[in-house]
Write a structure and sequence with these properties.
With about 100 residues, the protein is of the alpha+beta class. The chain has one domain (about 25-95). Helix 2 packs antiparallel against helix 4. The chain has four helices and four strands, in the order ββββαααα. About 10% of the residues are buried. The chain has helices at about 45-50, 50-60, 65-70, 75-95; strands at about 5-10, 10-15, 25, 35. The chain has a two-stranded antiparallel ribbon with strand order 1-2. Helices cover about 40% and strands about 15% of the residues. The longest helix has 20 residues, at about 75-95.
C-alpha cells in the first residue's frame, strides 16, 4: 500500500494510499460507514448500485470545491437526497 506524507491543516501526517485532502468523510448511503474522499458522494459499491441517471444528475449539479465550502446547490441537494432514498428503498426490498 502506498503511503505519502502530506501537510494538511497545518500539521504533517501520513495518509494510506496517498490521499491529499486533509480529512475524509463517510459514504452518503444510509448505514454505510466507509471513509471516502470528500469530493466523492458514495463509496464505490454504493455509487455503482445507483442507476446511471442519478450518477449523471449528481455530476451535473456538482460544483468543484463545494465539499470544502460546504455550499452545494439546492439542485445538488435534491438529487443527492433522491439518490440516497432510492438506494435505501432498493436495499430494503432485498432484505
Amino acid at each position: 500500500m502506498a503511503v505519502r506524507r502530506v501537510v494538511a491543516c497545518n500539521f504533517e501526517t501520513t495518509v494510506p494510499g496517498g490521499f491529499q485532502g486533509g480529512h475524509m468523510h463517510h459514504c452518503h448511503a444510509i448505514g454505510c460507514h466507509r471513509e471516502i474522499p470528500p469530493r466523492r458522494f458514495m463509496c464505490r459499491q454504493h455509487w455503482y448500485a445507483l442507476p446511471r441517471h442519478y450518477q449523471q444528475a449528481i455530476w451535473r449539479h456538482y460544483r468543484p470545491g463545494q465539499e470544502r465550502a460546504k455550499d452545494p446547490s439546492d439542485e445538488y441537494r435534491t438529487v443527492a437526497r433522491d439518490a440516497i432514498n432510492w438506494l435505501s428503498a432498493t436495499s430494503q426490498k432485498g432484505r
